[in-house]
């Protein structure tokens, strides 16, 4: 599932491609993609609307329109947008089509059918359920070492589970949680409330560092919506990660084998020597 850096790069790419353009006609092909809106209402609320801005909040892509509506999009496992010309057929798993009226169309396809969309009035965006529950953005002033330490002290869950909770830390998933914990030298199974102030400050810094690093590198993502032959999640770059996905491979610091641990049904990767519990 894409994490904050991937979604940020998707939003930036889409903003460059479609900001200022107008949706001549919108069509919801798979109704369950937008379960709170009937297909005819979906078309009525977005057809004719001009795209003012494409941006991000947490792992959600947000389209702001000049008619006062905002489309909230969660890509989930395999959702992606494609900007197609008239010479391209719609992909097999097309779930929504936004006709731009000049021969181009923005298509949302989702092979695994997990993506979600919701239309909300722009002035109500911050109170929409999907957005209101999110923790502060990792690069915002609200997300501080003090905020993180206070939140950790209130949780008896493992550190890994805490970091994946979008109401506590926004935008992290398996990859960047693993990378941040490794750089901070903290064990993923450690109880969150037991993390010291010093380690919390280190973790705060590494969370921001790994997210900024990934956004700058763009190493996990091919954001080319104009090329239907290339997926959004096309570049794992296995040598890029320090611990994620590197079970039994040497730790870049001490050469100990990286260990994979199952936590709440998900894999955690860490160095047992550098990240002692």
Describe the structure.
- The protein is an alpha+beta fold.
- 27% of the residues lie in helices and 21% in strands.
- A four-stranded antiparallel sheet has the order 1-6-7-5. It has a four-stranded antiparallel sheet with strand order 2-3-4-8, covered by helices on one side.
- A hairpin with a 2-residue loop joins strand 2 and strand 3.
- Helix 1 runs parallel beside helix 7 (197-217) and helix 6 (174-184) packs across helix 7.
- The radius of gyration is 20 Å and the shape is elongated.
- Mean pLDDT is 93; it is low at 233-237.
Number of helices: 7
| Largest sheet entry | 4 strands, antiparallel
Number of strands: 10
Portion of residues in beta strands equals 15-25%
Major β-sheet strand ordering: 1-6-7-5
Give the CA-based shape. Answer: elongated
Cα separation of the termini: 27 Å
Low-pLDDT windows of residues? 233-237
Using only C-alpha atoms, the radius of gyration works out to 20 Å
- Overall pLDDT: 93
**Roughly how much helix do the residues carry, as a percent range?**
25-40%
The ordered string of helix (H) and strand (E) elements is HEHEEEEEEEHHHHHEE
Structural class: alpha+beta
């Amino acid at each position: 599932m894409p994490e904050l850096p991937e979604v940020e790069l998707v939003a930036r790419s889409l903003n460059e491609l479609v900001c200022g353009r107008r949706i001549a006609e919108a069509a919801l092909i798979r109704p369950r993609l937008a379960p709170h809106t009937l297909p005819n209402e979906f078309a009525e609320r977005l057809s004719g609307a001009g795209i003012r801005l494409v941006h991000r909040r947490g792992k959600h892509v947000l389209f702001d329109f000049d008619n006062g509506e905002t489309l909230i999009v969660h890509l989930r496992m395999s959702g992606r947008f494609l900007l197609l010309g008239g010479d391209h057929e719609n992909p097999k798993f097309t779930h929504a089509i936004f006709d731009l009226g000049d021969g181009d169309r923005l298509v949302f396809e989702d092979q695994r059918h997990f993506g979600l969309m919701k239309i909300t009035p722009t002035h109500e965006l911050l109170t929409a359920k999907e957005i209101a529950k999110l923790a502060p953005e990792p690069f915002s002033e609200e997300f501080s070492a003090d905020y993180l330490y206070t939140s950790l002290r209130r949780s008896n869950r493992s550190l890994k589970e805490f970091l994946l909770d979008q109401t506590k830390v926004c935008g992290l998933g398996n990859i960047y949680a693993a990378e941040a914990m490794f750089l901070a030298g903290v064990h993923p199974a450690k109880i969150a409330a037991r993390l010291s102030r010093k380690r919390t400050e280190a973790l705060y810094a590494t969370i921001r560092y790994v997210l900024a690093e990934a956004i700058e590198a763009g190493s996990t993502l091919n954001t080319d919506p104009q090329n239907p032959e290339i997926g959004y999640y096309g570049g794992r770059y296995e040598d890029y990660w320090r611990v994620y996905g590197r079970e039994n491979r040497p730790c870049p610091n001490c050469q100990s084998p990286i260990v994979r641990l199952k936590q709440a049904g998900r894999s955690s990767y860490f160095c047992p020597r550098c990240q002692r519990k």
